[in-house]
Amino acid sequence: MKTFTSLCFLFLSSVSFSANIFSHDSSDANVPYFDITGRMTIADKSVADYSVILYCDGQRTDSVFVDTKKDIDIHLGYGHDYAVRFSKAGCKDRILLVDTHLPEGVSADYFSFLYSIEFLSEHAPSNTFDDFPVAYIGYDKTKKDFDYNRTYHKNIRVMPGHPETQTASR
């Protein structure tokens, strides 16, 4: 069962993968994983030439340089805490936090999550909120699916003048 959730600033477009990052043993196709798929943008346009670094439980585990504007697919094993850092020359780094722990009684299945994250210029006015991760994704017991934490999302974008304040409609 593959389920899809989205952030309010996500895209829903056809998926074509340009890069893959694996945090688990990808040689066993029968092992379920949590898949996050998306792209980075500037001014709502997809961008290329950026790095993605994956940290699992505080340790750097993989990285890739994305040289096309296509989506990137990241496969995450269950039962871990991940940080995904997106870096592009001339832009502030963006971080996505993902908690793949499942509550007792929920079996590891093939869950998916779509995202689109905006790079901010390194010359943009300084904002304390820019230092925080752009989203926190985890299993939502009410929805029985992975979703972004709406409370975190709302609170991180309440500062007047913050570039993403207008996109946080929930």
Polypeptide structure, described:
By secondary structure, the chain is mainly beta. Strand 12 and strand 13 form a beta hairpin. The N terminus and C terminus are likely disordered.
Distance between the termini: 27 Å
- Shape descriptor: globular
Give the averaged pLDDT, no decimals: 77
Low-confidence stretches: 1-19, 164-170
CA-based gyration radius: 16 Å
- The computed structural class is mainly beta
Descriptive key words:
single chain; 170 residues; mainly beta; 6-stranded mixed beta sheet; 5-stranded mixed beta sheet; 43% strand
Write the layout of secondary structure elements.
Elements: E1 17-22, E2 34-42, E3 45-46, E4 50-56, E5 59-66, E6 71-76, E7 81-87, E8 91-92, E9 94-99, E10 111-118, E11 120-121, E12 135-140, E13 145-148, H1 150-156
Parallel strand pairs: 1-6, 2-10, 9-12
Antiparallel strand pairs: 2-3, 2-6, 4-5, 4-7, 7-9, 8-11, 12-13
In short:
With 170 residues, the chain is mainly β. It has one helix at 150-156, and strands spanning 17-22, 34-42, 45-46, 50-56, 59-66, 71-76, 81-87, 91-92, 94-99, 111-118, 120-121, 135-140, 145-148.
